[in-house]
């Protein structure tokens, strides 16, 4: 096990998701799956404030060539892709159905933005919210920083909100690698019901 954290609470996020790199050994050689997925164009870079400058810089180095070539997920990603237009005819294919990358031709948006847009759309259809996606993002703010500023100094980077980059035409003004999201603190509870402090 390799660790760069000091306390158990740093291992999971506020939603209980494990935060870390997955290392596997293939033919006797260790491979970082997080890096491999980004390098092959199978995943967008996703940066959070708990990450070190070295971690973010490494992923930027790996993702830039594939983004420049417009391979993988970058092939159908454009700043003109609309967040507020969701194809409601798409269905879950199930675990047995393997996707064909050559057939995936629809517009692509950042997963975090997709989650926000789909939640807004479902709530709108259920008449739980009114107004457009921009209003929803403003009412449910996500804290973030510009990657360029965060890499210079995490402590002096200007604190921003995700909705600032949402455009009135339904598009988003930044690439996934241009944002660092503020991680929400988690509290891991031990078997005695108190916050865990020991490993």
How is the topology of this model organized?
Blueprint: E1 23-26, E2 29-32, H1 33-39, E3 47-48, H2 53-69, H3 111-125, H4 133-139, E4 143-146, H5 147-152, E5 160-161, E6 179-181
Parallel strand pairs: 3-6
Antiparallel strand pairs: 1-2, 4-5, 4-6
Helix pairs in contact: 1-2
Describe, in plain words, how this protein is organized in 3D.
The longest helix is centred in the N-terminal third of the chain and has 17 residues. This protein has one domain. Helix 1 packs parallel to helix 2. Helices cover 26% and strands 10% of the residues. The protein is globular and about 45 Å long. With 199 residues, the protein is of the alpha+beta class.
For the report, how would you describe the main beta sheet?
4 strands, mixed
Placed side by side, the strands forming the largest sheet appear as: 3-6-4-5
Which sequence of SSEs, written as H and E, runs from N to C?
EEHEHHHEHEE
User: What percentage of the residues does DSSP assign to strands (E)?
Assistant: 5-15%
Distinct helical segment count? 5
Structural class: alpha+beta
Instruction: State the distance separating the first and last CA atoms.
Output: 13 Å
């Amino acid at each position: 096990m390799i660790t760069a954290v000091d306390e158990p609470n740093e291992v999971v996020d506020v939603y209980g998701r494990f935060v870390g790199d997955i290392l596997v050994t293939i033919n006797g050689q260790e491979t970082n799956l997080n890096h491999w997925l980004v390098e092959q164009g199978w995943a967008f870079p996703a940066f959070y404030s708990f990450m070190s400058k070295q971690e973010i810089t490494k992923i930027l180095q790996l993702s830039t060539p594939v983004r420049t070539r417009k391979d993988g997920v970058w092939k159908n990603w454009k700043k003109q892709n609309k967040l507020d237009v969701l194809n409601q005819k798409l269905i879950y294919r199930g675990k047995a159905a393997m996707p064909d990358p050559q057939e995936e031709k629809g517009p692509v948006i950042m997963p975090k933005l997709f989650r926000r847009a789909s939640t807004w759309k479902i709530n709108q259809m259920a008449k739980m919210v009114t107004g457009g996606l921009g209003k929803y993002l403003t009412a449910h703010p996500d804290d973030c920083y510009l990657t360029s500023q965060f890499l210079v100094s995490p402590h002096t980077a200007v604190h921003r909100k995700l909705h600032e980059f949402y455009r009135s035409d339904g598009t988003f003004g930044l690439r996934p690698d241009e944002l660092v999201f503020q991680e929400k603190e988690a509290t891991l509870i031990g078997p005695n019901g108190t916050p865990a402090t020991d490993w």
